[in-house]
């Protein structure tokens, strides 16, 4: 969760300061990849917890 916070904080900081970095394609792709990885981690953890609840019930 801290990684998500720091990533969102940095993106917000860069956007507020109007850094030219935010218009670079590599930055956009890397940030999108990070957000996708974070979503995948949470989705996989929810599947694991769902599976564990079925086994113990």
UniProtKB/TrEMBL annotation:
This is Uncharacterized protein. Keywords: Membrane, Transmembrane, Transmembrane helix. The chain crosses the membrane at residues 26-44.
